Amino acid sequence: MEINWEQTKKQNEAWEYLLDDLTNELLFGGGAGGGKSLLGCAWLIIMCGQYPGSRWLLGRSKLKSLKETTLQTFFDVCKMWDIRNEDDFKYNAHEGLITFTNKSTILLKDLFLYPSDPNFDSLGSLEITGAFIDEVNQITFKAWSIVKSRIRYRLDEFGLMPKILGTCNPSKQWVYQEFYKLWEEKRLEVEKKFIQALAIDNPYISKHYINNLKSIKDKATRERLLLGNWNYDDDPACLFDYDTICDLFTNKAVKSREKYITGDVARKGRDKMIIIYWEGLQAKEITILDYDIKKSTSKSAEWIINYAKRKQVRHSHIILDEDGVGGGVVDQIDGCVGFVNNSQAIQPDEARLDKTKIVNYANLKTQCYFKMAQLAEEGQLGIDEPRDSEIKRLLIEELEQVKQKNVDKDTRISLVDKDVIKENIGRSPDVADALMFRMYFELAKRPVPRIITL
């Protein structure tokens, strides 16, 4: 088959990585209109033609979306190169299989993480020569890793490197952590590559397409799709938008004599033990306890007691995560409040007489995060942290992952599970949780009775 393909500069750069002997993971994209899907489909078609009997995977989160979008791009590329269905290849819609006349095949795969198949056993003993996953931000890191592990079919015979190509628009999922962030910091591993491709990098795209992107009114969507800004997330389920999170570090809460200590307790493993000192609604000091302290509940309790004494915080104004090992620390601090994430939401006093005032949060944790989002939006919550601090970076990443679960369903208000956040950012949201515990004291406040003198 004769190939005539005028690549964009960014596509050409990606093509070199797809053909080299070093790169085995490539993420291409970072904006709309950069020619992402076309690159992936073209790569599969050319590889199938060049290596008879090879076997490739074309994947996306849902097979329905794959067939409606990426597969149509595949057919467009075939038409552009005069590669014809039934003559040069056969598409079996029922089996999700494209077979070329030289016996090369492309398998269409649904890579969504279904609860019934958490380990992707459906991929079984699959062996492939390479893989292209479109909109890779919609699948989990586990799915990406498992597909990558299946790339071994006839590689030595063909003299090929195992390669997996992913494409996506900016997203605060695992791709941000595994590719974009490391690329931006110039720490991306040598065998992994990221190429930022935007609509303005594509000289073959319609000017009307770019004008449509420029006319998008929603700032987050425009920043992501037009400018390739990875720091914005347009997910309507997000409780905190990027600008509001950044404002936390410049906000100054109303001065108060009330002092508090909040803490997310951890003992072993990668989870951090975070202690925050507050004056009113201003987080004045955030501390990550050393491992030698956090590994012992008695040492942790002793440290917090001494810290509270130095900061002049009474024990009834200390709140710690009581789930798991946290209970062992709470028990050793007299008067300390234990925060139980899945306990019932705090009902306002007026709900006793007016049932319409009852709040419908699934648990206390959800209620506190929504309260925190409200205060952050109103500029009433502040954090004292240097601009370039590690804690600030961690907190921004964590708060962007706090999202409402089943936002379109008429059920009790709940948040996405912590396991989902761990999957997306590779760690527990310890700093965000420690910050959120402060909201308990705002929700548990009782109105001060008025004293009327006659």
Helices and strands, with pairings:
Elements: H1 9-19, E1 25-29, H2 36-50, E2 55-60, H3 63-80, E3 89-92, E4 97-100, E5 105-110, E6 130-133, H4 141-149, H5 155-158, E7 163-168, H6 174-184, E8 192-196, H7 207-214, H8 219-225, H9 242-247, E9 259-264, E10 274-279, E11 282-288, H10 291-294, H11 297-311, E12 318-321, H12 326-330, E13 337-339, H13 364-377, E14 382-383, H14 390-399, E15 404-405, E16 414-415, H15 418-425, H16 430-436, H17 439-443
Parallel strand pairs: 1-7, 1-8, 2-5, 2-6, 6-7, 9-12, 11-14, 12-13
Antiparallel strand pairs: 3-4, 4-5, 9-10, 10-11, 15-16
Helix pairs in contact: 2-3
Describe the structure.
- It is a single chain.
- With 454 residues, the chain is of the alpha/beta class.
- It folds into 2 domains: 9-225, P-loop containing nucleotide triphosphate hydrolases (Rossmann fold); 242-443, Nucleotidyltransferase, domain 5, CATH 3.30.420.
- The protein contains 17 helices and 16 strands.
- It has helices at 9-19, 36-50, 63-80, 141-149, 155-158, 174-184, 207-214, 219-225, 242-247, 291-294, 297-311, 326-330, 364-377, 390-399, 418-425, 430-436, 439-443, and strands spanning 25-29, 55-60, 89-92, 97-100, 105-110, 130-133, 163-168, 192-196, 259-264, 274-279, 282-288, 318-321, 337-339, 382-383, 404-405, 414-415.
- Strands 3-4-5-2-6-7-1-8 form an 8-stranded mixed beta sheet, with helices on both faces. Strands 13-12-9-10-11-14 form a 6-stranded mixed beta sheet. The chain has a two-stranded antiparallel ribbon with strand order 15-16.
- It starts with 8 loop residues before the first helix and ends in an 11-residue tail after the last helix.
- The mean pLDDT is 90.
